[in-house]
Amino acid sequence: MNVEGKSSALALLAAQARRITLDELPADVRRQGALCILDTIGCMIAGTATPEARMLYGCESEHQGGPAAVVPGTDWSLGLYAALRANGYLGDILELNDLIGGHASIGNVTAALALAEVQGASGAALLEAAIRGVEITTRVYAAVYPSLKRFTEVGMVPVGIPSSVGAAAAAARLLDLDEGQTRHAMAIAGAMAGWCPAEVIFGDGGTMKPLLFGAQPAAVAVKAAFDARNGMTGPQHLLDSKLGYFNTVSVGGSLDDAPARAWALAAPRRKLHACCGYIHAPVDAVAQLRPQLARGFAGGTLQVHVAPYVADVVSKAAPPNSPNDARFHLQYCLAIVMQGGDTIRPEHSIRMGEHLADPAIVQAMGRVTVVADPTLNHYHQCKAVFTAADGRQYIQAPAGPRGSAQCPLSDDEVVAKFVSLAEPVLGRARAEQVVQVLTRLEDLANVRELARLLVPSA
After folding, report:
1. CA dihedral 236, 237, 243, 248 (to 10 degrees)
2. CA–CA gap between residue 405 and residue 269 (Å, rounded)
3. pLDDT for 180
4. What's the pLDDT band for 299 if we cut at 50, 70, 90?
5. How many domains, in total, are found in the chain?
6. The MmgE/PrpD N-terminal domain covers which part of the protein (predicted)?
7. What would the pLDDT profile of 422-444 be if each residue is shown by its tens digit?
8. Same domain, 285 and 240
9. pLDDT digits (tens, 9 = 90+) for 24-58
10. pLDDT digit string (tens) for 373-386?
11. Is the domain of 332 the same as that of 210?
12. 307 shares its domain with 248
């Protein structure tokens, strides 16, 4: 699209972002936008239970300054950029945040929530900003995902740049930027975005990985919006030039010139399992096999077919070496299910050592074979084949995992997920109060009222 006489992809996206207003949005999209905020806050609160949470506070308390924002589920109040990084990190660490537009909510809700609090914005402004960000992120992500290059070729996961561009559109709304400033904010954010190394996410990432999908995009997006407001300009063909993002991560990436006809939030992808989304379909397929097996998974072998790009990154040759690795370890998660689990829960990674001390888990991992199946091209596709000791085979190939667009969670299930994550930290009554506020978010006069409810001691 970098052709003389045609608008850049960023120009088209900026114009589309400016047209996304609550008055023009369908009711179901507004409702799903509020549920994205609720679901993402729940993930942030749940992340405070991890050992890394205190470490993170020590890191980010070094970067104080400027107006402060709360970190949901804690009594911490950090400077804006420190809060953006902390909230994005905690909301991503358990791998429970949604998969709309390649994890769009974690970066966009993180950016919009903290900035709206600092600005004293209304609930309606927060909602409109978050929806803008999620929809723009999804458009960028959708431009490359159908023709994505394999991670072994590029070494880059296509999440950080779309989320940074989208979150800049969200921040631009809260700072009342005009269309030109919005376009430059998105370009600056994309230029400053991290490249999301595949090794950090799927390999030996240490404790860094949760910074990449939400924390870094949110922080660079908010800074980019302030920079654009103060006159800084960005690379307008960052996405669509021959050197741009589309050509870097895909073999045929492009952005349709036509206005979006379908809202991403009308077909949300949300997570039920606390692990990489690439693992959800195999987990559900194996769970669906269990009722067919008289002796469970004892004595047999399990073969799981997944798309080749999925096998590249979540099929592991050795047991998980860290809680983060456990969330991206297909054989480990399947062993949990083979031993009776129905869902992958936060404790399966937080207390990974206890599970790996169980010989049955280790033996089950050894009976799993992962097949890179070229007939499969999406992570919601898989086929599980269990061969029992007597030679009989049992096959399960679901259309999509629970929470996917093929098998979506209901609104009540999303609310129940939030309450289950928030109740241990906030208490049942406070968690339900947050649900009520988010249900009527458009009526909230000031987001600081919501922020106060997210502090346990308040």
Report:
1. 100
2. 5
3. 97
4. confident
5. 2
6. 13-252
7. 999 999 999 999 999 999 999 99
8. no
9. 999 999 999 999 999 999 999 999 999 999 899 88
10. 999 999 999 999 99
11. no
12. no
Same domain, 41 and 152: yes
Both 230 and 295 in one domain: the answer is no
- CATH code of the domain covering residue 154: 1.10.4100.10
The overall longest dimension of the chain from CA atoms, in Å, is 72
d(CA 206, CA 200): 7
pLDDT, residue 63, reads 60
The reply to whether 379 falls in a domain is yes
3-state secondary structure of 119: helix
Residue 413 CB partners (closer than 8 Å, separation 6+): none
pLDDT tens, position by position, 129-182: 999 999 999 999 999 998 999 999 999 999 999 999 999 999 999 999 999 999
- Which CATH number covers residue 358? 3.30.1330.120
Is residue 458 in a domain?
no
Instruction: Tell me the residue range of the domain where 209 lies.
Output: 9-270+409-453
Q: What letter represents residue 142's amino acid?
A: A
Are 257 and 123 in contact by the 8 Å Cβ rule? The answer is no
Q: Give the whole-angstrom CA distance, residue 48 versus residue 346.
A: 11
The number of beta carbons lying within 10 Å of the beta carbon of residue 363 is: 13
Examine residue 351 and state whether it is found in any structural domain, yes or no.
Answer: yes
Residue 4 lies in a domain: no
Buried residues in 85-99 as b, exposed as e (16+ CB within 10 A): bbbbbbbbbbbbbbb
